[in-house]
Amino acid sequence: MKRYCDACRHYCDEAAMFCPTCGQYTVATEVERIAPEGDVIYPLSHYQLSYKDTFLYVMGKKFMDTDGRASRREFFQFLLLWHIAIIGLLAVFYGLTAIFQTGPYLIGLAGLIVAILSLVSLMPLAALSVRRLHDTGKSSATLLLFLIPFVGPLILLGLLCLKGQPQDNQYGSALQHLVIDKRLASIMKVSSTSSALTTRVLVGILVVVICVFGTSLRAMGPANEVFPDGWFTNSIVGAGSVEASRASVQNYFDAVNNKDYDKAFTYIISQASTNPVEKQKWLESMKQAPKVDVVSLGITRVSRTGDLKRIVFDANLQTTKVGAGVVESTPMKRYISVIEENGVWRIEGFYKTMPDDDK
Questions:
Q1: Residue 4's Cα: distance from chain center in Å?
Q2: Cβ(164)–Cβ(74) under 8 Å?
Q3: Are 17 and 25 in contact (CB under 8 A)?
Q4: Alpha helix locations (H) across the chain?
Q5: What is the mean pLDDT of residues 306-321?
Q6: What whole-number distance in Å separates Cα of residue 346 and Cα of residue 268?
Q7: The pLDDT value given to residue 30
Q8: Cβ–Cβ < 8 Å for 121, 82
Q9: How far apart are CA 130 and CA 176, in angstroms?
Q10: Nearest-angstrom CA–CA distance, 354 and 41
Q11: Nearest in space to 44 (alpha carbons), one of 52, 53, 254
Q12: What is the per-residue pLDDT for 229?
């Protein structure tokens, strides 16, 4: 900070209440220093910084500082860089997962990195938002609007987008929005003000990473599912696995109902190593079993250990039994565990309760 003498138009040290040249009273002003070249250097908040310097200023010097004011340019520059970093990171990891079918491991790593970056940037972003509100004449308490569900964040965003007050207010002097040319940049040891072309390029990069991220999500999800469980399941057990495993369960019951027991047995796991005696017992039990129709198959658990992939379905079944001229239909619920064996999905077992992974 410096003090300014209106009489002789000289800047004095912060401690000089009276001008050492003319003796007139001086007023405090937001000037950091006078460069040897004679340039008056203001605090960085008064300049149109480059994207690099904005990021370093917010994350460094102003990391937890809520004092002063921040321009819309500073706020949106940092916000643009933050979104590019976060979404770009997700796009890379999700893209690699979709291409190489690496399962949930890269997604988990991406989630961990994003969580760390979000926690690190939370305080600087909050401090920047407070300074932006100060520029519009509003207090830091306005930030609490974020806690109001749905409409609160929208109202807060609208307030953050307002133009700053052109006059001094209780939070500091009016921002001057000074442009940094090459000569001034060399004096201040910063980069020149970013051009409009730089902004357009960065916005284009953001659009590209959003498209890559969205395409990766879509590639990992089945065609008829857009909810997270679709792509998350496929990221673990592979694309097409849900449809193939559901088809195996449905084909099994269709074969049993049609009394094609040899075909039904092909959908049971480890059929080649099954004891012939046990197979015969299974055949006898199937001949006495009622007709079973599949009402719905919901995914309850997906897991992958090495090459072993398992899906557990929460099956709602309908049993139909004919006897003495009466048809009895009874709803039944079972957990059906299906695993991949030599590239083919086969039924591992039927359970009344959720099976453990080691079963």
A1: 49
A2: no
A3: yes
A4: 51-56, 72-100, 105-135, 151-160, 182-188, 196-220, 228-237, 241-257, 261-265, 276-288
A5: 85
A6: 5
A7: 64
A8: yes
A9: 19
A10: 69
A11: 53
A12: 53
Apex 154 CA angle, 165 and 151, nearest 5: 130
**Residue 182 phi, psi dihedral angles, 5° rounding:** -65, -40
CB under 8 A, 24+ apart: contacts of 211-218: 212/91, 212/95, 213/87, 213/90, 213/91, 213/94, 213/95, 215/95, 215/98, 216/91, 216/94, 216/95, 216/97, 216/98, 217/94
Please state the pTM of the whole predicted model.
0.64
Backbone φ, ψ for residue 170 (5° rounding): -65, -10
How large is the average pLDDT for residues 84-104?
Answer: 84
**What value does the mean pLDDT take over residues 293-298?**
89
From CA 24, how far away is CA 7, in angstroms rounded? 7
Alpha-carbon torsion 226, 346, 96, 99, what sign?
negative
Q: Which residue has the tokens 């059906």?
A: 336
Per-residue model confidence as pLDDT tens digits over 98-135: 787 666 778 888 889 999 999 999 999 999 999 999 99
Question: Is 70:128 a contact under the CB 8 Å cutoff?
Answer: yes
